[in-house]
Amino acid sequence: MKKIAFSLFLTATIITLATSQDLPTDINGYHFTQVKKMEAMPVQNQFKSSTCWVYSTNSFLESELIRLGKTPVDLSEMYVVRAAYIKKAENYIRRQGAAAFSEGAENHDVMNLVREYGIVPHAVYSGMPAGQDKPVHGEMEAVLKGIVEAVHKMPDGKLSKQWKSAFIGALDGYMGTPPASFQWEGKTYTPQTYFQSLGIKPEDYIALTSYNHHPFHKPFVLEVSDNWSNGMFYNLTIDELIQTAEHAVTNGFSIAWATDVSEKTFSAKEGLAIIPEKAWDDLSQGARDSLWKAPGKEKWVTQEERQQAFDELSTTDDHGMHITGLVTDQTGAKYFTVKNSWGTVKKEMAGYLYVSQAYFRFKTMAIMVHKDAIPKAIRQKLGI
After folding, report:
1. Domains of the chain, CATH where assigned
2. What is the reported pTM?
């Protein structure tokens, strides 16, 4: 009886933790009305690591489990990060150093990694030293990069059989060795069997983008440095991409979102991301300050303007986040509710922010959604 009571209490506690944050409807002079909200696990803090790609994708997968009626669980980001470093090292050596080796990656990399390596709850493997609850990866990345750079130069004339075990030894020195098997909710799992138990099918998740240097409605390898695995993205027009994102959210599907956050009008401090009609450099200080006080007219970019920003590198693959809802302001303009991974910046927003559709239209690099979240007509165009 005590075991059952504790189990019920634990489940209830986890479900409570998974309830989406009740965000403020008023921010300065912005007044928001909620249209749709999905549940998500609590906001995390990637801290001193460039691992937004896994924080955003794990958050997305946690919400997918909730959508599928599964028990909510906090999945281990660092388990996936460790697996990614191993695959990146193999790729770097095979390409004789002519490949990206950094902390960055894409949403689809998580899906590929969990398919191969499985996954574990955070409580099973934190990937951080004892007493540390947030990742600090600068030294670790430098050490790991030093190893693969030394190895690919083959100072002894050929690769040794030991290089990979030496690399993994250094990796585990910083992150710890994950368990080969573990107990969870009364059952014994390996990381692979645990992932299988979740019911997530990686092949059901589709990466989408929108750039006109490749044909629309066809897949292509998006040319950004973090796409180290040469993953394919289906190409939509920007109108179709927005249609897909809104269709997904209004039908209860959340979105893994890769975007550029370098704009001065992306502000975690203000809890808002907008694209004013006039460029930031053309605004007076007073006009800049007023942007956060009430909605104003925003720039609705064309497909060609998106492409120009990509080609000029003013739109780059900066950050990954998780779209969990939709709101409108008092003018009727739409905003996505976005879960970030920078901890709590603006207290009342609790790590979330509202992103205008104008910002999404201009600065989105890519999204990943369940295939059922894509409108039927667009799926037919893509042949999926």
Report:
1. 18-382 (3.90.70.10)
2. 0.94
